[in-house]
Specification:
The protein has about 55 residues and is mostly helical. It has one domain. About 30% of the residues lie in helices and about 0% in strands. It contains two helices and no strands. The longest helix is centred in the middle third of the chain and has 10 residues.
Amino acid sequence: MLHESEGDAQGLRLVYRLFDLAADGMDAGDLPRLLDAVQLAGFARGQCHPPLISRR
């Protein structure tokens, strides 16, 4: 990934991870706990694209 490669070139370790709640067996109610866990693990959070919400 371009951003990870640039981070390496700058001496920084950047890790991008897609979190797909449905694929991971979670729903929107799990989001606050997931975000807390990500922060506790030392990751910064960013959102590159607006969330897609299924209206089925």
